[in-house]
C-alpha cells in the first residue's frame, strides 16, 4: 500500500511540475493580455539633452501572434519606432524596427538581441546580438531589458562601459487612445 501511495504522489508531482510554464512563457502571456491596448509613459532617466523630454510617450501592443508581439513606441508625432518581440527556439528576441514616414526602413533598423535564457516571469534581458554589433559597433555592449507586471511596463537600455542609460515606464492601469499605426505598419 505504501508503495502505491508513493507512486501516486510521484506521478502527481510530475504532473504538477509539467504544468508549470517556463518564466519567459509567463512573461509572454502577461504581455499578450495587453494586446490592442495603448498606454502612456514617462522617461525615468531624464537628461537635459534627451530628445524625448516634453513629448507624449505612448506604447501600443498591436500585434499578438503565437510567436510575435509588435509594440509601436510613439514619441510625440514621431511614429518611427516599433519593438518587435519574437519567440525563437524557446527564447524571446527583441528587435527595433525603425521606419521613415513613407514606411521605408531606416538605415539603422533591426538591431537588438535575444535573451540568453528564459529569464524571469516579470523581466527579460536582451544583450546585443552580432547583427547589432555589425550594424552599430558602438552598441555592441548594449543590454536591453523589459519588465512587465499588473501595473507597469518598462523598456530599458544600458550601454555597458558607458554612462548611457535609458528607461521609460508605462502605466498599464490606465488605457489611452492610440496615435494610430506606426509608420510602415499601416496594414
From TrEMBL:
UniProt signal peptide: 1-18
Keywords tagged on the record: Signal
Superkingdom in the source lineage: Bacteria
Stated name of the protein: Secreted protein
Organism: Cecembia lonarensis (strain CCUG 58316 / KCTC 22772 / LW9)
Species lineage: Bacteria, Pseudomonadati, Bacteroidota, Cytophagia, Cytophagales
